[in-house]
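As a warm-up, study this chain.
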Amino acid sequence: METFDIAVIGAGTGGLVTAAGASQFGARVALIEKDKLGGECLYTGCVPSKTLIKAAKVAGLIRRAEEFGIRVSSYEIDFPAVMARVRKVIETVGEHDSPERFRKLGVTVIQGEASFTASDTLRVNGQQIKSKKFVIATGSRSTAPPVEGLEEAGFLTHVEALRLSTQPKSLIILGAGPIGLEFAQLFSRLGTKVTVLEVLGQILPREDAEVAQKLEEYLRAEGMAIYTCTRAFRVAKTNGHRAISATCEVEGSTKGPVTFAADAILIATGRAPNVEGLGLHSLGVETTSKGIVVDDYLRTTAKHVWACGDVTGKYLFTHVAEYQARLLVGNLLFPYRRRADYRVVPWVTFTDPEVARVGLTEAEARESYGNKVRVYRHCFGAVDRAIAEGESYGFVKLVCDAAGQILGAHILGPQGGDLLQPLVLAMKQRIPISTVSQTIHAYPTLVEANRRAADQYYREKLFSGRTGKALRAWVRWFH
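Now compare it with the structure written out below.
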């Protein structure tokens, strides 16, 4: 029976980073994966979806070609060719996550499904594997909402949607979170008639309300039908079509039922941790519906078992899984352990325009800081580069305390995810908004919007109130 220092179950981002890092420090590491190395992000998540989003953006730009003085007489969307490019991109990116690469790093890669048979033993493919420590990095999966007839009528998750060979003519999406809206826009731009149903009162419920409202207006203008406060309660399939019955809440009263029909239904309403079949409860590992319970050091309630990534239910992002895994390598191998710090976690919804966020929303900040909150905005419609590129919709919004420390930053606009990063660093290092304003930003770039928003801080300080009056009096007196 082979014995390891660390056995990692799951080869998504968290598992791969943990295994590679620990092995390079000299630990004997087993990496166990029942499917392909690379996990959901590579095969059914970030990589293929962003590839599709790019194709959809190109289609959208072709439709706008005349804005730039270019006449396109005709074009055709070849959906099979679009999906073939998706597969090609996955293949190219996947070379970095090949079993051969990890074996060269000294990792023992085992293909199979793992389950605990004892506190220090796993069964994989009928064989026993012993290890001193274990890392659970098995990820999460989509879950279907409790809607009558949904299972019988059939539905797509993002996994099946990314493997389609035929484009649906019409599509209903349940859920207006990041996944739902990304797929809504990409399919709409590729020519599918899209309807989005969201049970809550705004799209992107976790985002700043002002940002969500402006994005909804943009998506509606592109041709998507979006219904908030709408709860699906029944699905029926007739003549190849799916019909959804739903109730809608309008001004506090429930209306309905209302019927929506489409060729296909895509669900994007929630996720659940992949913990079934592992035998975790026999080890005393506590789990909830959201994931495995871990402490600040990513240790479970069983002292020799650790976890990272989506399965912990903390933040379901690839970049958070990578952060946790890098932290975990040190905590597994060395006596000085570091706590996970989630105070500054950015995330991006890859619609067009993108929605990027770090820190508190305006509402959250006002709840915690009251009237000490200051909000500064700058629209991309006043940024020269954005105007030149025809990408002037949206704004940068900075939420600060009275001293100018950034409590939250929100961007709705072109390349919002990239533009957010300087503000993430500012929050992490407690760099005040005044320093952002005083920093030279290259012209003409989109990131000027950050500085222009920060400039509002000085305008408020220098041109209003007693300070403004005193400075104007000084100028009048001495000049």
